[in-house]
Amino acid sequence: MAVRFIVKHPDPVLREKAKEVTKFNANLHKLLDDMAETMYASNGVGLAAPQIGILKRVVVVDTGEGLIELVNPTIVEKKGEQIGAEGCLSIPNLVGEVRRAQSVKVKAQNRHGEPVAYDGADFLARAFQHEVDHLNGVLYIDIAERVFAPEEQSEE
Fold it and tell me: Among 33, 109, 115, 135, which is 20 to 30 Å from 76 by CA?
């Protein structure tokens, strides 16, 4: 495993649409392992492959309940609404106030190509939506109601 370089905004790779994974092999397993190690080393809760310069539909998420690996994820259901703060490893030193679904259902494949599904609510739903957006070239700053430096929030 290795910690990879995280691509920073405004790198154009962050705006490209990631391609579907068709080969479930040792290269994919290494990518997933490296992504998890990179996310943990950066104190993140999610990481999408485009954030390390790889245009594949691969995501890792851990909001405190354990690592979730998603290959070719699709959000198939959204319910409710929440507004909350989001940051991004690719956009350091900024936070956005973003409106997201309160709960989502995600269908994907695991590292072996087997189908998996997750129901996420609250923070996990937010993380799933944020990372799937990365796979479509969408950044939270594109949809945020406002973007600010973290120290500005504490002054309100």
Answer: 33
| Residue 14 and residue 48 in contact, taking contact as beta carbons nearer than 8 Å | no
Please check the confidence at residue 98 and state whether its pLDDT lies above 80.
yes
Average pLDDT of every residue of the chain: 96
Whether the Cβ atoms of residue 59 and residue 103 lie closer than 8 Å to each other: no
Average pLDDT over residues 60-74: 98
Q: Which residues are catalytic?
A: 131
Nearest CA to 36 among 71, 2, 9, 6? 2
Distances (CA, A) of 103 to 91, 125, 129: 25, 5, 10
Q: 10 Å Cβ neighbour count for 124?
A: 22
Residue 87 burial by CB count (10 A; 0-12/13-18/19+): exposed, middle or buried?
middle
- HEC string of 96-121 equals EEEEECCEEEEEEECCCCCEEEEEEE
Using CA atoms, how far apart are residues 144 and 94, in angstroms rounded to an integer?
11
Helix (H) or strand (E) holding 85: strand 82-88
